[in-house]
Structures are given as C-alpha cells and as structure tokens.
Amino acid sequence: MPMNPALALQEAMLARLRDDAALTTMLGGQKVFGRPPRRTAPPYVVFGDPETRAWNTFTETGHEHRLTLHVYSEHGGRKQAYEIIARLDELLDDAPLPLTDHHLVNLRCVFWTALRAADGRLFHGILRLRATTHPLQ
Fold it and tell me: Domains plus CATH for the chain?
C-alpha cells in the first residue's frame, strides 16, 4: 500500500529542515518537531495539522495540501520569529523534495506572520504553505 501523500510530504519537509545546519543553529539545537514538544525551551518549530483535498484532473489523481508551520520564540521575540520564518521559506519554497510513493508538483509559501501569544511572553510565528502532489505510477 502506498504511503499517504500528506505523511510523505511532512516526512520530506521534516528531513529537509532537520538537515539544515543554519536552521539548527538558529533554534539552538535540533528543535523541529512533528508534534508539540514537552518541556522544550523556545525557539522551536512545530508542524501543524495538514489539510489535504483531492486535486484530480481528467487523466491524473492528485492532492492539494495546505500545511502550517508554527514557530515559537521567547527572548528573541518577533525579530527572531521572523528570522526563523525567513529561513523556513528559503528551505521550503519551491523545494524539489523527494517523496515516498508520490511526486511533488509544487510547494509554495503563501502566508507568514508573527503574533504575540496570549500569555504575553511568547511570540507565535505562522508560516503557511500550499503543495500539490500526485502518486507515482
């Protein structure tokens, strides 16, 4: 059975981000997570829940994915959140990521912001991406 396309995309993105020395330095270690971490000091990056829809044509089956990356910064504030978002954008926008059982047609960053969290102590950066994939035949 082929891998779910949303999972294949997240795994490829996660590998790309974890392999980048500059991002690891910015985060103060290997702090890119597929789910929210426990007891991890900011800054760090967390994948949000993906949203996937059918993106079929008359001849091909495909999927459209909307993904969100969350950046959390404390002492570095909004500036640090935007610097991390900029690095994520450099690494992911139009990246030719290899996917298990699928082909990545495109991957684009479509929105980003950094907001003060409700607790007033953290900044919450948000980066949204859109991707389309189709299964390998």
Answer: 5-135 (3.30.2000.30)
